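Case study.
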Amino acid sequence: MVMKITLGGISKPHSSKTMKTGDWGTEYPVVDEEKCTACKTCEYLCPDACIVVVEKEDEKKVAVPDYEYCKGCGVCFSVCPVDAIKMELKDIYKLEVC
Amino acid sequence: MEKVVRGFYSIAHSVKLCKPNVIAAYPITPQTEIVENLAEMYANGELGDCEYVTAESEFGAASILVGASAAGARTFTATCSQGLILMSEVLINAAGMRLPIVLVNTNRALSAPLSIWNDHQDSMVLRDGGLMQIHVETNQEAHDMVPVAFKVAEDHKVMLPFMINMDGYKLTHAYEPIDLLEQEMVDTFLPPYNPPVYMTTKDPLTFGSYAPPQYYAEFRVALQNAMERARKVLEKAYKEWAEITGRDWGGHIVAEGVEDADLVAISMGSLTGMVRDVISELRNQGKKVGLLKIRTFRPFPAKEVRGALKDAEKILVFERAVSFGHGGPVGMEVKSACFGLTPEFYSFAVGLGGRDVPREEIVRIISDVYYGKVDQGFHFGTVKPFEEVIV
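After joint prediction, the assembly is written out as follows.
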């Protein structure tokens, strides 16, 4: 099958929906829902709009990372005023050192 | 209409007749007067449907043109030296995005130490960036190559940025009688830009978007293919230009008296005139010497260069730049084009940072090579003995 490429790498809007970039990072953020106060500091400061405060079924609001696009930069972890976010190493980067 | 004008104006007048839609520029010696002339034309309402944007830097100027070109505009800028390398991040992107931006680079040395004078170090840094590059010998040639640049860059078989290199000061500041083009002549040669794709606010697009390893290589192959196609498109445009204007600047190269020459001297840009003068005098004295002027630098006309040098016993390249840690950048290309042939090879870097290249220096270098008085390989022209000391 012949692959089709566009002149100059031009793409139409929304093509990033099919181009996931969440596998770039080494670490990923984990939100402690008990500690999270839904203050939105992380939401405002995430450079890739990858963490958003949403309302859960029990009406509690918490920050939820989008792992399909999160690059694991750790900004949310750094700015969280209540230390509700920690960064964890992805399993594929965990090495057993003998 | 023939008029005595400076190199700056020879470019600006030609750009005006090409009816650009967006010009964005930032001043830098020895280019500034080109865009000053254009700014004056713009202020006088002579540029028609054109936006002239004074950018905050060369990076900004090139970025504005990338946006304008992606929106389907015919775009122009001029720069050189530090300005060109500040633009380089954007221009290399423009090549990948296949945007036909035309720019004039008024060749100037690179810092450090700071020099505002002429050599070819700046454009050589852009050698591998995917821009077409030509070098002109005179202001008339510079004047004539602007419409050619737009025509070739905007050809759908090509779609690449085009850089016209003209020597700073030597050409830009020189007054010469120029046969200024008429609008009708340019209109006959250059059709309005017909972009194969462009974005609007209603139909937004991303240019040069992310290509992961499984896609990236194909885009780069496509760029290389476009460069290869540009050879023919450019050659055809050179010919068509000669037919329309009666001024034939030649093809990718101009070979003069190389058929029976034992020694062929190679030059690019304004130095060629002096080399031609010396070669012609030596031929009158019965010496078998020839001249090869390289006009197109990217795509590099390897086949033509090899053809012109196939019978030469000695090849001598006059370099205007240095690839530090190796040698002269033009000589490197020439050697690669001549792979398998076995001429003696000499290359001399002259006129770095605007140092005067007197006629005697050209005569001395050619004679030394002709009579076998120097070793093969890369040399510098006239340099004073020096010692490097700590302050």
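Observations recorded in class. The first strand of chain B starts at residue 2 and ends at 6. Chain B has a mean pLDDT of 97. We will return to this complex in the next lecture.
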